[in-house]
Design brief:
The protein is α/β, with parallel strands linked by helices and 395 residues long. The protein has ten helices and 13 strands. Helix 1 links the parallel strand 1 and strand 2. The longest helix is centred in the middle third of the chain and has 63 residues. The C terminus is likely disordered.
Length: 395
């Protein structure tokens, strides 16, 4: 850990040498050195002696301005008995005062206290920034949720009124079309509600890991059939398994949430005629889940924030979403003591890989993307899928 930097604005050379000796455990910067340095760079405390007051006040003000919004404390050293002659406005510019000749114990106490004040200032600033970020995120989230709720509710309300006005005279095909649109709108509301509940549950102390024996291969097929029904046969999902995935000790609800969100994102951000791949592999002590798409990809500058709650990549466009899906996935993976990684290229697609331990111990899996790997190179390394669930037919 680096030492705190203390700037000495001292006129008397003998006092300067004494202070350097007393403050040997700190990174002491002298006024002559600081003149050639960047103003205020890393300075955490300023020590000023009485002889330098006349020439240092502007320099002290400059350092404090450059330290903003952090607070930069200042210690004044004065001859005993002279404080009564100093203007109150001058004394108000300093946070502590010591009499000369300086007692090393008193100096250490004063410096330690003022550096602590500086540290508390930093913590307060970080807390305020975190609160501001949270407030901004919550406001953005509230606006997004209201928007996501309003759209399907407006559709349902409008279609209900049309059906009511049409009465029994409305042709059956037209009525059925309206009912189907209402069903789609209701599905969006249900999905949004489920995501909100999942996010809140996982983020609280109620988030739980409840493993049991599961036929995960069968569960995957059921989930894919649900996507087939919801998306009305617009997409094709390649499904491949390796190893025995029919009898695993895992949390079925957490894995279902992971699969639903990853597959939903892959389908939403892929062209209609572009297949999505789901790979399930059982190793000795681990389950590996991979979801691969050929969609938009994630801009490099957005990737560090991808799992943040309420975050959406800049190229999401008009695709529906609240930015909760991947945050929920990360929560579920963490509850399962697993890891999640991804690699993405804009215009080429995205690979997500989840590694979950099959025993209640910390995962020791090696990072999937330990070495750079292009999307194209990865696809060439994967064998052809053993089965394809085509959402456009009855398979």
């Amino acid at each position: 850990m680096s030492k705190p930097r203390v700037l000495l604005l001292v006129k008397d050379r003998s006092s300067e040498r004494l202070l350097i000796d007393y403050l040997s455990n700190l990174d002491v910067v002298l006024i002559s050195q600081q003149d050639a340095d960047t103003t205020g760079n890393g300075i955490e405390l300023v020590v000023v002696d009485f002889g330098a007051i006349a020439t240092c006040l502007d320099k002290l003000a400059a350092h404090r301005d450059s330290a903003q919004p952090l607070y930069l404390p200042a210690l004044l050293l004065v001859p005993e008995g002279i404080t009564t002659t100093l203007a109150p406005e001058l004394l108000a510019q300093f946070d502590a005062l010591l009499y000369e000749p300086v007692n090393p114990v008193d100096l250490n106490v004063a410096v330690t206290t003022l550096l602590r004040v500086r540290q508390l200032s930093l913590q307060l600033l970080q807390t305020n920034q975190a609160l501001a970020k949270t407030t901004e995120s919550n406001a953005r989230f509230t606006a997004t949720v209201v928007h996501e709720l309003r759209n399907p509710l407006s559709v349902i309300s409008s279609l209900t009124q049309l059906i009511k006005r049409g009465g029994d005279s409305m042709p059956s095909p037209k009525r059925n079309t309206m009912l189907e649109r209402m069903q789609v709108a209701i599905g969006k509301l249900v999905k949004l509600t489920d995501n909100l509940l999942a996010f809140n549950r996982n983020a609280s102390v109620k988030g739980q890991f409840n493993p049991r024996q599961v036929d995960l291969e069968g569960r995957c097929i059921a989930i894919l059939n649900d996507f087939k029904f919801i998306n009305q046969g617009m997409y094709e999902i390649h499904f491949q398994t390796k190893g025995d995935c029919s009898n695993l000790f895992v949390d079925s609800e957490l894995i279902s949430t992971i699969l639903n969100n990853l597959l939903s994102n892959a389908l939403k951000y892929s062209p209609d005629d572009s297949p999505v791949s789901l790979f399930l592999e059982r190793q000795e002590n681990h389950l590996i889940i991979e979801v691969i798409d050929n969609g938009k990809g994630i801009p490099t500058e957005d990737q560090p924030a991808l799992f943040d709650a309420f975050f959406r990549a800049r190229n999401a466009g008009a695709v529906d979403g609240t930015g909760l899906g991947l945050s929920i996935v990360k929560q579920c993976v963490a509850l399962h003591s697993g890891t999640i990684e991804f690699q993405s290229e804009v215009g080429r697609g995205t690979i997500f890989r989840v590694v979950l331990p099959l025993e209640p111990i910390a995962s020791s899996a090696q990072p999937f993307f330990a070495q750079p790997l292009s999307i194209a190179a990865y696809r060439q390394s994967v064998n052809e899928p053993e089965r394809v669930l085509n959402l456009s037919d009855g398979s």
